[in-house]
Amino acid sequence: MKKREGTHFRRCTLIVIDSFGIGAMPDASLYGDEGADTAFHICQAVSGPKWPVLQALGLGNSARLLGKTLPGCEPSRTPRGSFGVMAEMSPGKDTTTGHWELAGIVLKNPFFTFPPAYPSFPEDLVQAFEKETGRKILGNKAASGTEIIQELGEEHMRTGNPICYTSADSVFQIAAHEEVIPLEELYRICKIARRLCDPLNVARVIARPFIGKPGSFVRTRNRKDYSIPLPAPTLLDVLQSAGVRTIGVGKIGNIFNETGIDENYPDKGNIACLDRTKVLLQRERSTEEFIFVNLVDTDMVYGHRRDVAGYFKAVDEIDTSLDGILPYLNKEDCLIITADHGCDPTFKGTDHTREYVPLLVYQPGREGRALGIRKTFADAASFVCQYFDLPNPFPGSSWHAG
User: What is the phi/psi pair of residue 19, to 5°?
Assistant: First the structure.
């Protein structure tokens, strides 16, 4: 790969608005998600115009491809970006599956999910965990993270035993009060659990620290995800090997086990991640760059809590930040905005939803166009390879670079 003659170094930024789905996929009924529609139901619940930057880039046009109109975020007659939607080819609806597919890995088999009712975890896993950590397990069931710390937090503080729980996703989550089990000890316990969960094909072990007193416990931003080892090289590895500088922002490093990443900025919260992205876009480049950003609050703070107003506001804050980011993109730059799954805040339960995701592609000075309904998230990895003039080793197909 060579730098284009007489131009700046190319830079591609991929921003994932975590859980910002745009409509149930045809197989959503297999997941109990028929009728879920994150973006549409938020727009329907909140009156008035909304998300002007995303609208101008083509968000409403993306929804129109699925035969719907987002109230207050209607299609633009002359969208600034290219627009489409992407279907998830891999089985599942979780962070790991979605991000890995965006980076070129399409899973044939779903990750293992624990049964929801007590006891969720196999007895041999429990015994091995308790033996290696020296601590008994509390919980051992599927639960809302905010609810289970209220239920078991006082017992946890009294005994020093961690609260271990799961969800509809492939996760083994460990909650602990930061004054009872310090962060470094919690992270050590999670590493033990990660190793024990590997043979079961569990996607993530998640540290869920919290603070406060009985009756008023709150989770902190010191969450940390431990993903299962990657089965194959990803887009990050391919780019890194070709000399493109790869940069992770937010929990990207956790999702990809810090592999294929030259610079990792594990900033906490959407605003911090967007501020970091803006700083990265302003700095002078000496090589080609790929910036991979995850904005987790839409999912973790609002989607799972079924907080419609909070979810809307979070996307509104992203929209405002994008308005300050776009001016720092030059004609050699590309910005991709998408999601990794749905988490409809108006839907039943508290889990992710199996949805299409929006696809917005902005390249300054290039006319936007319809990209259609893509068959796999891996089309994003294929496009990025094409953008950097690299062969595409992934199962997706690129849309034209423009």
Answer: 75, 15
CATH topology classification for 123-227: Alpha-Beta Plaits (3.30.70)
Where exactly does CATH 3.30.70.1250 map onto the chain?
Answer: 123-227
Which residues, other chains included, contact 351 with Cβ-Cβ below 8 Å and sequence gap of 6+?
167, 168, 169, 304, 343
Distance CA 400, CA 208 (A): 41
Nearest-CA neighbor of 350 among 303, 296, 396? Answer: 303
**CATH 3.40.720.10 spans which residues of the chain?**
11-109+230-387
Per-residue pLDDT of the chain (402 residues; tens, 9 = 90+): 554 444 579 999 999 999 999 999 999 999 999 999 999 999 999 999 999 999 999 999 999 999 999 999 999 999 999 999 999 999 999 999 999 999 999 999 999 999 999 999 999 999 999 999 999 999 999 999 999 999 999 999 999 999 999 998 899 999 999 999 999 999 999 999 999 999 999 999 999 999 999 999 999 999 999 999 999 999 999 999 999 999 999 999 999 999 999 999 999 999 999 999 999 999 999 999 999 999 999 999 999 999 999 999 999 999 999 999 999 999 999 999 999 999 999 999 989 999 999 999 999 999 999 999 999 999 999 999 999 999 999 999 998 644
Query: 11-109+230-387: which CATH topology?
Result: Alkaline Phosphatase, subunit A (3.40.720)
Token representation of residue 47: 């009156």
Whether 163 and 176 have beta carbons less than 8 Å apart is answered as yes
Alpha-carbon distances of 387 from 153, 193, 294, 380, rounded to whole Å? 50, 39, 21, 10
| Alpha helices (runs of H) in 256-307, residue ranges in sequence order | 270-282, 297
Q: Which residue is listed with tokens 């690129």?
A: 398
Residue whose tokens read 């790969």: 1
